């Protein structure tokens, strides 16, 4: 179907009605999902979703309604419902639509071979992944594995002249696994890979790394409590560090006053070596996008530069609240009105490799996975270390279990002592290993 | 054309075992933040999920297009997905079990007491303003969702069921800040039923007061000392423990992949004071599931009976494997999702101890209330949950509030340590969703429980 034509039709109809402005967002996604559980193939799935959302602006109020039933009659119904909602919602001067913007299209986010990838190919890819894992060692157990492909299309038309459409493909592989030897069960561990092009995934390597990790955490021992260094893996950086950071710089949380950094622009929030960047324009980046959920061109944005907080992520609404301009971070799909979301969220500034960091650690824990909570409002985190390694005098001494770590992420940002240059791609995050100092480590 | 007729026609063309599930959902969401209506949305998500079983393997295809051609295509796609899968699947599905299959209409959707959208918005705005106007509170949030679900489930065995229900949920959040620290208080409720049911246990004003009190109390609270303690868990934490740490390990798909309770049916896994149930029939609860998405009518599952592991949770496939009857735990969140083994309302049955009695017998422990930030558990039943609200218990008395508490342990060890079960069963997950690749509305709860857990608190020398 012609999404732009469908959206333009709604915009034309809306203009005849008693409203000021209108925006129609369309998105579709064609997915293939292959799942393994219990070491065996589960249900291969195909799914085509197409839907649209209409946002109307009337006397300073907005109303939003959406549907995935794609016909003219339904479109009219949804438009009317959006107007009804606008009529009962209080006005807010920050309800604004962005104007037409020049769009610079991102490259390499569509795998041209996507059309040739059928469910049968996806099943075979999944098989390669799972068998590489299970063949590694007979003690490894697969909790689940997943290989998926997604072709998505987004289109936007608004009454201020914005009209844009973009496609993207994303391939992902994920596995959750543990090792079992008699009554000895290791902790769960997971692996994850993602890319816009299938040829960029290395499934065999991923599977074998995961198998090695779970087998190595089988004979874990306890340690005594101490205060020392904690090296977080990219997965644990995601939960302990990147998620709270993402929360703190999200314009919605800033205007709502729940971000701890609401009035900290320009201030030093981290060590000078740390940079946090959101870059929507990385060729081939799974988080890349040429325009956001409102049709605003997404640019590279420095969030933290040389340790100083420089920018928040904004959509038109949150930007207007702060007398600022949208940074092109309106996020979400057709089923809800625009929120704020990052594109490729990068923690940068490291110059070491993991071996160097371990070698340079006197006493500490390497956290493979963090199972706990990190409260983004206060920054307090506390949880159990999974697949942990105890480090003494620059060497990994043993695998540990029953270890808990706790601290405050916003304070620890000034206590980072090392980061790796190499980053792991986890969904739209690009994260290094990060070492913090003076963390309380609770053992037995 | 009539939807059932269309679905039947598509089904008749299938050469294989096929299930067609039409699901029409209308969802309304309202969110108020800091005096502003940050969200009012109305969305429709409708379509058909088709599942075929061919040569011992499932295939699934979903479409929102209800045309005759699109439905026929979805059936073909599901069958071909299954056929491809069957060439790789090692363990073939030989049969699927039959529980009580639904036939006819199952309706729990009385909208008689629902109020207009404008009135809801006004009431929530009012509630949020009350929160924000309290001393030491800087921010308030009210979130509300309503799901109006209609399903039609047909299969080639002749099952034909129409299921309708309405679910509402609400969350009320107060963010406190006294200049030195910031704390969150959160209260929520969720029901299957009408608008008034949502406020049956706590009125809007009571939720507001409670959220504000939690945030303020935490502002004044000290950090706790870590270690193993005798504690009293409130119904919400009991529910979280039952659902998250125990419940997932007894889902038959987890059991088959080697969860800690594999081959443990008939063994003692908990104190004899503990009986744990999953039941989709509990009226008004958020996890109420009259008929599951395979068309099985909900029945009560006694997971643990007097401390003995009794039953796992099943779908039709796993029930056949274990030679038992499925009891309505195969659930799908939207038409695009295939049914998975899910919990409904998971709870610990009530006992005979009064709360006062339970507190009076503790010399040095904690009273822990509500789930705080986060929670996680593994297939070996090891868990870690954040606790929202906590108080010391000293010499049989509840004393000072403490904050920043997480509890961890092995859930079956915790259940083994239970020495008193309260007489005050409550479903308490509130705005509870369970995630297992897809979401599900669930509830969970129990009475107050006295048991031993490891508390992770602050240590001397922590980075402040």
Description:
The complex is a heterodimer of chains A (444) and B (464). Chain A has 444 residues and is α+β, with helices and mostly antiparallel strands. Chain A has helices spanning 3-15, 72-88, 119-134, 203-216, 234-248, 251-255, 316-321, 354-359, 409-412; strands at residues 21-37, 40-41, 45-58, 61-67, 140-158, 163-181, 184-185, 189-195, 226-232, 275-278, 301-305, 308-309, 330-331, 339-340, 345-348, 363-367, 369-374, 380-386, 388-392, 395-400, 404-408, 416-419, 424-426, 429-431, 434-442. In chain A, strand 17 (369-374) and strand 18 form a beta hairpin. Chain A starts with a helix and ends with a strand. Chain B has helices at residues 3-12, 68-86, 117-132, 204-220, 235-246, 252-256, 316-321, 355-360, 411-416; strands at 17-33, 36-54, 57-63, 103-108, 137-155, 160-177, 182-192, 222-223, 227-233, 276-278, 301-305, 308-309, 330-331, 340-341, 345-348, 364-377, 382-394, 397-403, 406-410, 420-421, 426-427, 433-436, 438-441, 443-446, 449-456. In chain B, strands 1, 2, 3, 4, 5, 6 and 7 form a seven-stranded mixed beta sheet that branches. Chain B starts with a helix and ends in an 8-residue tail after the last strand. Strand 4 (61-67) of chain A pairs parallel with strand 2 of chain B.
Topology at a glance:
The complex is a heterodimer of chains A (444) and B (464).
Chain A: H1 3-15, E1 21-37, E2 40-41, E3 45-58, E4 61-67, H2 72-88, H3 119-134, E5 140-158, E6 163-181, E7 184-185, E8 189-195, H4 203-216, E9 226-232, H5 234-248, H6 251-255, E10 275-278, E11 301-305, E12 308-309, H7 316-321, E13 330-331, E14 339-340, E15 345-348, H8 354-359, E16 363-367, E17 369-374, E18 380-386, E19 388-392, E20 395-400, E21 404-408, H9 409-412, E22 416-419, E23 424-426, E24 429-431, E25 434-442
Parallel strand pairs in A: 9-16, 15-24
Antiparallel strand pairs in A: 1-2, 1-3, 1-5, 3-4, 5-6, 6-7, 6-8, 9-25, 10-11, 10-15, 11-12, 13-14, 16-19, 17-18, 18-21, 19-20, 21-25, 22-25, 23-24
Chain B: H1 3-12, E1 17-33, E2 36-54, E3 57-63, H2 68-86, E4 103-108, H3 117-132, E5 137-155, E6 160-177, E7 182-192, H4 204-220, E8 222-223, E9 227-233, H5 235-246, H6 252-256, E10 276-278, E11 301-305, E12 308-309, H7 316-321, E13 330-331, E14 340-341, E15 345-348, H8 355-360, E16 364-377, E17 382-394, E18 397-403, E19 406-410, H9 411-416, E20 420-421, E21 426-427, E22 433-436, E23 438-441, E24 443-446, E25 449-456
Parallel strand pairs in B: 4-6, 8-18, 9-16, 15-24
Antiparallel strand pairs in B: 1-2, 1-5, 2-3, 5-6, 6-7, 9-25, 10-11, 10-15, 11-12, 13-14, 16-17, 17-18, 17-19, 19-25, 20-25, 21-24, 22-23
């Amino acid at each position: 179907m012609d999404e732009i034509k469908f959206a333009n039709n709604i915009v034309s109809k809306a203009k005849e009605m008693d409203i000021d402005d209108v925006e129609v967002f369309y998105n579709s996604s064609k997915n293939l999902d292959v799942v393994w559980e219990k070491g065996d193939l589960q249900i291969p799935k195909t799914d085509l979703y197409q839907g649209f959302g209409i946002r109307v602006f009337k006397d300073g109020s907005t109303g939003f309604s959406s549907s995935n039933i794609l016909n003219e009659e339904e479109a009219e119904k949804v438009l009317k419902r959006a107007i009804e909602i606008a009529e009962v919602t209080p006005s807010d001067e920050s309800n604004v639509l962005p104007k037409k913007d020049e769009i610079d299209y991102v490259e390499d986010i569509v795998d041209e071979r996507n059309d040739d990838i059928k469910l049968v190919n996806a099943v075979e890819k999944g098989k390669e992944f799972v068998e590489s894992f299970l063949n590694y060692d007979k003690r490894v157990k697969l909790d689940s594995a997943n290989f998926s492909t997604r072709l998505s299309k987004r289109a936007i038309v608004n009454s201020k002249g914005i009209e844009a459409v973009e496609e993207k493909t994303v391939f992902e592989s994920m596995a959750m696994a543990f090792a079992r030897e008699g009554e000895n069960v290791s902790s769960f561990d997971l692996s994850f890979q993602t890319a816009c092009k299938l040829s960029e995934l290395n499934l065999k390597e991923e599977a074998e790394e995961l198998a090695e990790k779970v087998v190595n955490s089988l004979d874990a021992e306890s340690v005594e409590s101490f205060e020392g260094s904690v090296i977080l893996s990219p997965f644990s950086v995601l939960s302990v560090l990147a998620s709270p950071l993402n929360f703190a710089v999200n314009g919605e949380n800033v205007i709502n006053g729940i971000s701890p950094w609401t009035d900290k622009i320009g201030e030093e929030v981290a060590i000078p070596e740390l940079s946090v960047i959101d870059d929507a324009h990385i060729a081939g980046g799974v988080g890349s996008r040429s325009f956001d959920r409102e049709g605003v061109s997404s640019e590279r944005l420095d969030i933290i530069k040389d340790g100083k907080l420089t920018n928040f992520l904004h959509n038109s609404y949150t930007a207007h609240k702060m007398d600022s301009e949208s940074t092109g971070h309106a996020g979400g799909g057709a089923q809800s009105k625009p929120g704020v979301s990052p594109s490729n969220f990068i923690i940068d500034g490291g110059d070491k490799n993991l071996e160097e960091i371990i070698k340079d650690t006197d006493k500490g824990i390497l956290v493979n996975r963090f199972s706990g909570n990190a409260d983004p409002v206060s920054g307090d985190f506390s949880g159990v270390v999974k697949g942990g390694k105890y480090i003494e005098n620059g060497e990994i001494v043993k695998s540990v279990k029953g270890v808990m770590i706790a601290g405050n992420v916003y304070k620890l940002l000034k206590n980072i002592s090392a980061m790796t240059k190499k980053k792991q791609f986890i969904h739209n995050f690009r994260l290094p290993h990060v070492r913090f100092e003076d963390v309380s480590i609770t053992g037995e | 054309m009539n939807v059932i007729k269309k679905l039947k026609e598509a089904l008749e063309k299938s050469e294989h075992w096929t299930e067609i599930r039409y699901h029409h959902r209308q969802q309304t969401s309202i969110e108020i933040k800091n005096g502003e209506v940050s969200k009012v949305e109305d969305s429709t998500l409708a379509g058909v999920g088709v599942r075929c079983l061919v040569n011992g393997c499932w295939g699934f295809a979903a479409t929102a297009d209800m045309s005759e051609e699109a439905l026929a295509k979805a059936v073909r796609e599901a069958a071909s997905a299954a056929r491809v899968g069957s060439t790789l699947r090692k363990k073939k599905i030989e049969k699927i079990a039959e529980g009580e299959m639904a036939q006819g209409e199952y309706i729990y959707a009385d909208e008689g007491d629902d109020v207009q959208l404008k009135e809801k918005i006004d009431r929530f705005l009012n509630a949020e303003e009350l929160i924000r106007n309290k001393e030491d509170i800087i921010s308030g949030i009210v979130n509300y969702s309503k799901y109006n679900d209609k399903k039609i489930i047909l299969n080639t065995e002749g099952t034909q069921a129409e299921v309708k229900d309405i679910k509402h949920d609400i969350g009320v959040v107060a963010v406190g800040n006294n200049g030195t620290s910031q704390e969150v208080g959160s209260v929520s409720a969720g029901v299957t039923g009408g608008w008034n049911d949502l406020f049956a246990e706590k009125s809007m004003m009571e939720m507001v007061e409670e959220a504000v009190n939690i945030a303020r109390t935490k502002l004044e609270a000290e950090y706790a000392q870590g270690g193993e303690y005798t504690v009293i868990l409130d119904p919400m934490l009991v529910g979280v423990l039952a659902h998250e740490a125990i419940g997932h390990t007894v889902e038959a798909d987890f059991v088959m992949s080697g969860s800690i309770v594999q081959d443990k049916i008939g063994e003692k896994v908990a104190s004899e004071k503990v009986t744990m149930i999953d039941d989709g029939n509990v009226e008004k609860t958020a996890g109420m599931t009259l008929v599951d998405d395979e068309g099985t009518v909900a029945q009560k599952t006694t997971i643990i009976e007097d401390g003995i592991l009794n039953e796992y949770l099943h779908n039709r496939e796993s029930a056949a494997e274990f030679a038992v009857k499925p009891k309505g735990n195969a659930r799908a969140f939207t038409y695009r999702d295939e049914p998975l083994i899910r919990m409904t309302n998971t709870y610990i049955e009530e006992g005979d101890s009064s709360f006062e009695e339970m507190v009076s017998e503790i010399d040095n422990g904690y009273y822990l209330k509500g789930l705080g930030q986060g929670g996680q558990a593994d297939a070996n039943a090891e868990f870690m949950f954040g606790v929202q609200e906590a108080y010391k218990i000293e010499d049989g008395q509840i004393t000072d509030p403490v904050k920043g508490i997480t509890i961890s342990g092995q859930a079956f060890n915790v259940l083994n340590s239970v020495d008193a079960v309260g007489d005050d069963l409550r479903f308490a997950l509130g705005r509870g969703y369970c995630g297992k690749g897809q979401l599900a509305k669930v509830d969970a709860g129990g009475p107050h429980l006295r048991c031993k857990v490891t508390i992770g608190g602050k240590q001397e020398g922590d980075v402040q």
